[in-house]
From TrEMBL:
Signal sequence region: none
Protein known as: Cytochrome c oxidase copper chaperone
Protein task: Copper metallochaperone essential for the assembly of the mitochondrial respiratory chain complex IV (CIV), also known as cytochrome c oxidase. Binds two copper ions and delivers them to the metallochaperone SCO1 which transports the copper ions to the Cu(A) site on the cytochrome c oxidase subunit II (MT-CO2/COX2).
GO cellular component, one term: mitochondrial intermembrane space
Biological process, per Gene Ontology: mitochondrial respiratory chain complex IV assembly
Assigned protein family: Belongs to the COX17 family.
One protein family per Pfam: COX17
């Protein structure tokens, strides 16, 4: 089973937009895609660096992970 826990997230508005909140599913698509591919191919335990990179990206956008 996955050891990644659900994070508490608050919607984040990106500057220059119509103030629509950024949803967690749409944030950091670059790191999310690579992370997900690694987990599917190699398993979660082999992808900790990519998981952490995605968490860092999410935090940089204001999500509380």
């Amino acid at each position: 089973m996955s050891t990644i826990s659900a994070a508490s997230v608050e919607p984040v508005a990106i500057e220059g937009t119509e103030k629509k909140p950024l949803k967690p599913c749409c944030a950091c698509p670059e790191t999310k895609k690579v992370r997900d591919a690694c987990i599917i191919e190699k398993g979660e335990e082999c992808c900790t660096d990519l998981i952490e990179a995605h968490k860092d990206c999410m935090r940089a956008l204001g999500f509380k992970i």
